[in-house]
Design goal:
Radius of gyration: 28 Å
Bound molecules: adenosine-5'-diphosphate
Shape: elongated
Distance between the termini: 32 Å
Number of helices: 11
């Protein structure tokens, strides 16, 4: 369960779920034929019900709903189920059983909350560390840029090559840090989207032109076109397309082409990116969209990366109710399929 999902739920949903699950499980028992009551009245079954209801509530909503479920279950158990067969549950023991129920429920809720808290602190730490690293890195990049301009006249110079390398590696580091920052924002539900109208095809053209300048290792061939204007965050959509293009180049041999096709459809736009690279095994074609997941093939070949790009992209696409899928064969490369509705 992701923290983001938990945080995105409002109080009404979280507490409502707790009440609903408690009520439905108990009504299920009440609706059961009377002949089953000897089973229900067994304390083991009742305790299992409590564990089930409290675990589900605290898993879905955290500490508060977990405690609410604990008290509801204990109260229902005390006032109804225990009374159905008073002989097997003497009054004197009822209170003690209720105390045990409350302790068990409380422990489950607290453990569940602690897990959320630890996850939250981890995300906060990553966000803080990434932010702190970004500042000095930007200074390094600034100076490297200045030196790059100075040495431009003599590009064969050794120092000029070193400066280029510092610049390229700083860019790479900045990308990794930005990815980490994005993931931590997604996790805590603070990923912000701007609302803009823009021409999808022009954006794709711009990205391809830029990609060809910064990395000429593969030729990118653009086909198709559309005049569709879509409503989304231009920068975030750019992030998705750039990720697909850099991956296509990263996981393909040098000089093999990358084919991009853009098409408009009634309700939105479609973009496909086809490469002739290492491909993705069928068993991993869904898991590569999970965060930090990298295919075994990639690890074997020691290709750099954190396994975050596709996760971030899929979250962006999901936000716009679009589609991001892959078809791949290990001998013929991969084709990524992106679909974004126009959203207006
Ligand atoms: P990264 O590239 O930094 O590892 P991504 O999230 O962008 O992170 O990709 C996740 C994994 O998916 C990659 O590690 C790689 O195994 C696989 N992958 C993505 N794109 C391609 C591609 N075009 N060809 C082959 N494998 C790919």
């Amino acid at each position: 369960m992701k923290l983001a999902y938990f945080q995105k739920r409002n109080r009404l949903k979280r507490y409502g779920f707790s009440i609903l699950i408690t009520a439905s499980i108990f009504s299920l028992f009440i609706l059961l034929p009377k002949s089953y009551f000897h089973l229900i009245n067994s304390q083991t079954i009742s305790l299992l019900v409590l564990i089930l209801v409290v675990t589900a509530s605290s898993w879905y909503g955290g500490l508060g709903p977990g405690l609410l479920a604990t008290f509801l279950t204990t109260a229902i158990n005390y006032f109804t189920l225990l009374k159905i067969d008073p002989l097997s549950h003497p009054e004197t023991g009822d209170l003690l059983i209720s105390v045990v129920y409350i302790i068990v429920g409380f422990l489950i809720s607290v453990i569940s909350e602690a897990r959320y808290e630890a996850e939250f602190q981890k995300d906060e730490f990553i966000a803080m560390a990434a932010h702190e690293i970004k500042n000095p890195l930007n200074v390094i990049k600034g100076y490297a840029g200045l030196f790059q301009k100075k040495f431009k006249t003599n590009s064969k110079n050794k120092s000029s090559r070193y400066i280029d390398e510092i610049n390229a590696q700083s860019d790479r580091l900045l990308e990794l840090i930005n990815d980490l920052l994005d993931v931590s924002k997604i996790e805590v539900g603070k990923f912000i989207y701007k609302d803009e109208l823009f021409d999808f095809y022009s954006l794709t053209e711009e990205i391809i032109t830029h990609q060809q300048i910064v990395s000429g290792r593969n030729e990118i061939i653009l086909t198709g076109s559309t005049h569709k204007i879509i409503r989304a965050d231009r920068y975030r959509v750019e992030q998705v397309i750039t990720n697909l293009l850099t991956n296509a180049a990263k996981y393909s041999p040098q000089k093999t082409p990358i084919k991009v096709m853009v098409k408009g459809k009634k309700e939105g736009v479609i973009l496909t990116v086809k490469d002739y690279g290492i491909g993705i095994p069928r068993s991993e074609q869904k898991t590569i969209f999970k965060h930090f997941y990298r295919s075994g093939k990639t690890n074997q070949r020691k290709i750099e990366g954190l396994g975050l790009g596709l996760f971030i992209s899929s979250q962006i696409v999901k936000h716009y109710h679009g589609k991001l899928e892959v078809k791949s064969s290990e001998t013929q490369g991969s084709t990524f399929y992106l679909e974004i509705p126009k959203n207006y």
